[in-house]
Amino acid sequence: MARILVVDDEIGIRELLSEILYDEGHSVEVAENAAQAREARLRGRPELVLLDIWMPDTDGVSLLKEWAAQGLLDMPVIMMSGHATVDTAMEATRIGAVDFLEKPIAMQKLLEAVATGLERTVAVPKNVVQNAARTNPATPAMAAPVVPTQPQDESYLGSISLELPLREARDEFERIYFEYHLARENYSMTRVSERTGLERTHLYRKLKQLGIDASARRRQQS
Question: What local confidence, expressed as pLDDT, does residue 187 receive?
Answer without folding.
Answer: 83
